[in-house]
Amino acid sequence: MPHGEIASEVIGSVFRFAGQVLLDIVAEVIIKGPGYLICRLFSRDVDPDGMRVAVVSILFWIALGTGAWAAWGEFSEAADMDRCLDAGGAYDDQLRQCRFE
Fold it and tell me: Which residues, including other chains, have CB under 8 Å from residue 53's CB and lie 6 or more apart?
């Protein structure tokens, strides 16, 4: 067997192993972690691999994403107003536009 094929198999195996470890870490920490911590606040007997933990985790990430999206919209509008006023304009709240008169 040529050395190139052996090296290719070894490198492929190393990358597959690293990918699997990374996937397990993501699944355990990011997906199950918040759900477990939230469930643990309300009950001492929590199965870390249970359906309740998974559902609570998914709801947590949905709520976090929705909150970030709402905050982005609010802060983005405030930044638009600030840029308008800094440039010497007047911001029209109803039209949400900067006017220079």
Answer: 32, 35, 36, 39, 46, 47
Other beta carbons within 10 Å of 61 = 14
- What's the rounded Cα separation, in Å, for the pair 91 and 84? 6
Give the containing element (helix H, strand E) for 97.
Answer: strand 97-99
Structure tokens at 86: 């800094």
Q: What is the pLDDT of residues 17-29, one digit of tens each?
A: 998 999 888 878 8
By three-state DSSP, how is residue 6 classified?
helix
Could you tell me how far CA 101 lies from the centroid of its own chain?
A: 42
Q: What is the pTM of this model?
A: 0.60
Partners of 99 in the β-ladder: 90
Query: CB of 42 within 8 A of CB of 53?
Result: no
**Is 90 within 8 Å of 72 (Cβ atoms)?**
no
Q: What angle do CA 32, 73, 30 make, to 5 degrees?
A: 10
List residues bridging with 92 in a β-sheet. Answer: 97
